[in-house]
Task: inverse folding
């Protein structure tokens, strides 16, 4: 890992520590608490794909006629991440996106997807996403979280997108949450097995292989430009602060 990445990670460590110690985790004590958590957290699972796709649009050629864009290394990095996020496998080996897997887990545990379903009905490709967010009945902190994501996805330079994706959207899962999940799953295996699989798969793929690919992508995009590294650090820090407020929405 390069000195620039180590410096960035040091700069955002305080925000990361705050997230790991957010009181929301201690409030999830049973299946009902896990249901409530998922009903808000699912918005972060959904908008993550738009951030990822914005990187793919910026770093690869998706127009006709095709022409090569950027370096082959960066194209490989983002396309492999998209492949894993958009068409992974469920616990039975069937192809599925991580978002669809999360919805499957919510339905198994009996969580209410009504808030998300109502929101997505009013989101149309090519239409003004910020207006759809504003007109929705979702909590204000969720609106702020989505607005930040789409401001980055639609308007930020590509190195900032990559930094937010890599350092601001990694799922911060403290050990206490994993222990609790084990306990709930042992008590309700028929209700929580898919969610447990989702979390384990997320840690395995996103926290390992994808994390290394994403860090390489940021290193290549920022290069030796200190201004780019500063911008990347600032927005990664901001994204963690916004995630903290999303956890506040769940707590409330």
Result:
């Amino acid at each position: 890992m390069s000195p620039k990445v180590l410096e960035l990670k040091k700069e955002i460590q305080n925000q990361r520590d705050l997230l790991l110690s957010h009181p929301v985790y201690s409030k999830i004590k049973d299946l009902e608490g896990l249901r409530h958590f998922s009903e808000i957290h699912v918005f972060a699972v959904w908008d993550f794909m738009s951030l990822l796709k914005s990187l793919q649009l910026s770093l690869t050629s998706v127009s006709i006629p095709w022409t090569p864009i950027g370096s082959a290394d960066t194209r490989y990095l983002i396309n492999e991440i998209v492949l894993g996020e958009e068409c992974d496998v469920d616990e039975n080996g069937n192809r599925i996106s991580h978002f669809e897997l999360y919805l499957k887990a919510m339905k198994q545990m009996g969580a209410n997807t009504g808030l998300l379903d109502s929101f997505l009905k009013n989101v149309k490709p090519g239409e003004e996403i910020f207006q759809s967010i504003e007109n929705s009945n979702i909590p204000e902190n969720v609106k702020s979280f989505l607005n930040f994501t789409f401001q980055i996805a639609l308007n930020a330079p590509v190195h900032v997108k990559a930094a937010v994706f890599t350092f601001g959207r990694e799922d911060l899962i403290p050990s206490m949450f994993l222990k609790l999940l084990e306990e709930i799953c042992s008590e309700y295996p028929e209700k929580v097995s898919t969610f447990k699989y989702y979390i384990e798969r997320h840690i395995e793929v996103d926290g390992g292989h994808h994390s290394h690919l994403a860090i390489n992508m940021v290193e290549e995009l920022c290069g030796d430009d200190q201004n780019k590294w500063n911008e990347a650090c600032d927005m990664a820090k901001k994204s963690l602060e916004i995630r903290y407020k999303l956890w506040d929405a769940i707590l409330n």
Q: What stands out?
A: The CA atoms of residues 130 and 147 lie 7 Å apart. The chain has a mean pLDDT of 91.
